[in-house]
Description:
alpha/beta, 7-stranded parallel sheet
Amino acid sequence: MTAESKPEGETRLRAAILGASGYTGAELVRLLARHPRVDIAVLTAERHAHQSVADTLPHLQLLDLPDLLPISEVEWSGINIDVAFCALPHGETQRIVAGLLHATGHTLVDELIREETADLGAGLDRDIKVIDLSADFRLDPPTYAEWYGKAHQAHALQEEAVYGLTEFARDEVRSARLIACPGCYPTAALLPLLPLVEDKLIDASEIIIDAKSGVSGAGRAAKEASLFAEVSEGIHAYAVGAHRHAPEVERQLSRAHGEDVVVGFTPHLVPMNRGILATIYVTLTGGSTAGDVRERLAERFRDEPFVGVVPEGPMPATRHVRGSNYCLIGVMQDRLPGRAIIVSVIDNLVKGAAGQAVQNMNLMWGFAETAGLEQAPLFP
Amino acid sequence: MTAESKPEGETRLRAAILGASGYTGAELVRLLARHPRVDIAVLTAERHAHQSVADTLPHLQLLDLPDLLPISEVEWSGINIDVAFCALPHGETQRIVAGLLHATGHTLVDELIREETADLGAGLDRDIKVIDLSADFRLDPPTYAEWYGKAHQAHALQEEAVYGLTEFARDEVRSARLIACPGCYPTAALLPLLPLVEDKLIDASEIIIDAKSGVSGAGRAAKEASLFAEVSEGIHAYAVGAHRHAPEVERQLSRAHGEDVVVGFTPHLVPMNRGILATIYVTLTGGSTAGDVRERLAERFRDEPFVGVVPEGPMPATRHVRGSNYCLIGVMQDRLPGRAIIVSVIDNLVKGAAGQAVQNMNLMWGFAETAGLEQAPLFP
Amino acid sequence: MTAESKPEGETRLRAAILGASGYTGAELVRLLARHPRVDIAVLTAERHAHQSVADTLPHLQLLDLPDLLPISEVEWSGINIDVAFCALPHGETQRIVAGLLHATGHTLVDELIREETADLGAGLDRDIKVIDLSADFRLDPPTYAEWYGKAHQAHALQEEAVYGLTEFARDEVRSARLIACPGCYPTAALLPLLPLVEDKLIDASEIIIDAKSGVSGAGRAAKEASLFAEVSEGIHAYAVGAHRHAPEVERQLSRAHGEDVVVGFTPHLVPMNRGILATIYVTLTGGSTAGDVRERLAERFRDEPFVGVVPEGPMPATRHVRGSNYCLIGVMQDRLPGRAIIVSVIDNLVKGAAGQAVQNMNLMWGFAETAGLEQAPLFP
Amino acid sequence: MTAESKPEGETRLRAAILGASGYTGAELVRLLARHPRVDIAVLTAERHAHQSVADTLPHLQLLDLPDLLPISEVEWSGINIDVAFCALPHGETQRIVAGLLHATGHTLVDELIREETADLGAGLDRDIKVIDLSADFRLDPPTYAEWYGKAHQAHALQEEAVYGLTEFARDEVRSARLIACPGCYPTAALLPLLPLVEDKLIDASEIIIDAKSGVSGAGRAAKEASLFAEVSEGIHAYAVGAHRHAPEVERQLSRAHGEDVVVGFTPHLVPMNRGILATIYVTLTGGSTAGDVRERLAERFRDEPFVGVVPEGPMPATRHVRGSNYCLIGVMQDRLPGRAIIVSVIDNLVKGAAGQAVQNMNLMWGFAETAGLEQAPLFP
């Protein structure tokens, strides 16, 4: 079969995807392989190192792609990478990113990591930008230490990183060197919640997020808990009161609210590959109604290419966004007086990960924000 | 192949299952066919009338069972039915039940229905008892009329019916002539909530029930919304703020609380056959803690054969109860101060329908409460 | 949110999609909505008539699309349709297509249908082309009558129609006025079988096709047999020895072979939305080996953009082609001496239906054959 | 909650289940926990050693069961085990079984293993019987060595073991000390094929078995290939021409046929937890018809409690046997002249593993063959 061609004659980026064999990494490959302004120059994988794309990501075998290398074997020199997408485990990520960015932080910790990682990106051009999809740059240092059990090793970068919830951070994203892409649950929850907290239409101290996720969110690591037979034909809540996406949501809501916000957050695992549905229970303030909330959100997202607010009626389903970069939001009155129910859906691997990463890349290089992301949802 | 024998020499019931070709009816057949004290004498079905069990319920084809008749063709005379299980659509049920019970109600409506249904159970023994699995006898008359859009036709029976949440109604069930088996969602929600509301450990005005159900709960009717391709690989909320199980839950909680209770209730459809998981968000009162709540529930259900309260740690999953009459309950502290999260799981077709019906039957005839219900959950 | 723009300044087609609310129709909408050279001008639906795309195909609600009309209400005059895609039930299709094409056939049957359907496409430009996805134009008249229980009503069109298995009919497709797109099972089976039968590498009288399909192949009609609970967590064979795709496969193989071919064909229903996997058991002739077969197929499809032959090793899976227009083929030696096993996978809604239809359209109007079909498979 | 009681006053077996935390082991626990004549005295697990049943098999947490021990920590002395069920990995099994049986084999290999395993079952009563569910005792020594890559270490036991396809080996099973329970695929294939090969109704040299299995057949080990996201929403063939169940089927068919038989066997992985469906393509001999085949099978299995042959019409589905010890068989004429298609379905964990093991145990101790296995299939 023949390779397909991309438009010639325009600026093109050369991208590296680190951690390409996981589900998030594979999704980056899928999106970028068709992106009109990007060439995939480097793919890395550790568990699947030295395998071809045909072996590891057989759904992409008809595309023309490089083999998977371990990061340590990448020859950065001379390959002119513009952007590195990191889909690596947390902890490991901070070390790699520091190395790639030749980080010149100000703290002792940063100095240490600088030494350790000095050679990681040796030969890289200075102006590489990093779009990170791990949790490593989403939290502030003390919260990170509390939730991940040890101090972050690259504080300066942690502070430099822009939290890339695109619809709320366009200006910062455009000029960023390091993007921390939001987690999948936080993306689904924050898109509807941020405008409402900003406008004080809801009580920021009584937000309950009951979230449901597909299994790809647990990654491709071989764990008993992710086996088909452990997950299909059933549903369960996990990490109740203790999921690391709670402080991430709280950090952003606290910024919007102006003071500390704590949220209730209960994730559930649903027997489906893709999708997050967040059912959010909120207390309305100052006499506002579910209709006011819906109208405010519709207004806020009117010009957004990827966010839709559905009219009163059936609530959005995850299958309405599968494979796309969309977020759909619905709002209904609760039976409990003075309360409303918000439902928000995304594809965790697209808007909740790889799609949002590409959306941020588009902004950073001045491409159309929808470039490479026009694909409509796949149903059924 | 050969039929298997049941123990001889003990009182045996002769049962009719009306609506045997739906999922709830089929589950009654499955359970009763193996019940040591019951013979299945009559099976009815309308859509699948005149078919054999092999045609309609091929999973039961190796059992020795009567063919399916339309109700109108059952010859009640001489077949000595002791108990009728009704797994019929609401509305239609009240007419059938009135006919079977030769109802001598006191209202005009009841008189009318008495005439209309005079011949329905003609020939039946006087002492038949009815265990109903529809919604027809779960609500009080005005609430029924409000939520089902027309007046109930058998008010006297509606008032006579015992709400068969077994663990909370044993004495009434033992002497009842007509049982209204609870809905599947209400069973999952009420088992943990009733003791807490009774003991005022939680605030009855702030209960939020986020419920997730398998697709068998939607019944076997051929509807686009229940097609595999509409339901698999996704999740959605439905009937938000408007599901008929909300007033059913509220009626029971109001009784326990002593004054009117309104609850938030949001059902979701999950791509699995069986199971309900209710995630219940409650506000603790009087300084009680999640631990107090867990302990109270553990104490309340200590001697119950079918209800288990799990210790602090992983929450129960629907796959831990699949195919069984169990309800498992977990309790955890919420991140929101003063709040707790309760998770309750059942198999909607067993404890949420057919199993609870059989459990009630066991009580009504003085059998061991677990008779016919000892089957352990099927996993995976 | 904002609509996205398509390239200006090139020839653009105006397309009608008849039967847009079924799964095949919806897939046509999904593909054509992003096609760089097509505008969707008309969408029809009968069951879902007068609904918006947001109501019926909510996954496409963020696209800018016309509402669904019943065919009888389409005002053909003045809307300048170039191409009509028909995703309608068989039987009904022949009547509609005859009307659209102002068919001037030569038989009595055709005359009758001409009268009946005279007004169907009144006002339409003369040069409309029809790409049909039903079974109506795939068989010859006597076979059609035998398998569909009544005579075809548009014999002349039946004979004119080009069987659009693109890779084997490019020249005919380019000049066709009416394309009969192959069925999903035949597409999966014929792609590997045709070259082998042509080259006499296998015995045409001993072909056994064991096929497995996702549930979307059964369509969106509300049937008990397609309910989630009837289909999930199980597999079964259906229409054994009697499926209408058998004569379709046989017709094409007979042409290639030069004499009548009969095949064994057993379809199975698998609990997945999309995908067909055909496991084909063949007897090798003239000393040929599985390696010869693989090599022959690799050579035959070397320049095809959508067909890939995998090397010896793991066989292709349906999830490697989900959402794409790909067909992947693998070949292995059987344990039975002198026999080989061929596995062929497609997405039944894309290469097995809507994608192949678009591929044919691209040929008919001289677009790049891959236009609108570049999307890589979606995994997981 | 309260434990339930079992009947008193009859002989009761004390059982050990080795490898109780895998799916097969857990299924043995499920079945034996309810068996009227068995007490579970020992549960072992290596990966999940020292965990409680509540932790490892939470679906069984309401039963009264011992904690899981590593085999090396079991104190065999004084616990009076009658029967050991082995659900351990192949290779390891032969060592354990040899130890448990104090094997006094005649070959050098056996002597070696005797030394190595001398202490394994130290203290055990002499008359323990072993029912093995691994592949270790299903093949003859040379075939084992060929397919498993090394010599078997307990030849004498290998020869002593009875192949426990119950319906074809009752006399041998009754007096056996060591049962080799058939594999899941072989059970599904052999039940219909053995009578036909014995009676020469089919050509033994042209049998093609296209088999489809649920994912629990791959076991509970944490492998990438068994992850939900790798397996759901798709189907694939694996181990094409190279699956270890092929020689197992061939060994039994060869015995029945009187000379060596080779079969075509292609397994596929289906996104469901339980179930095997074998579609078997056979050439009829001596003018026999599909009807003859069906009749012969119906006659052969007429008095079998667990095997049913369905009349002409719809073929059996795996969901008709889920959770039960049933095998259902259907037969249809093929389109290819002189050929028939047989479909056979079982639950791989019950009739294909734990259920058949219990059925054999019932025979060995003279219990009713159906004891503990009366549970009807669970649908949906």
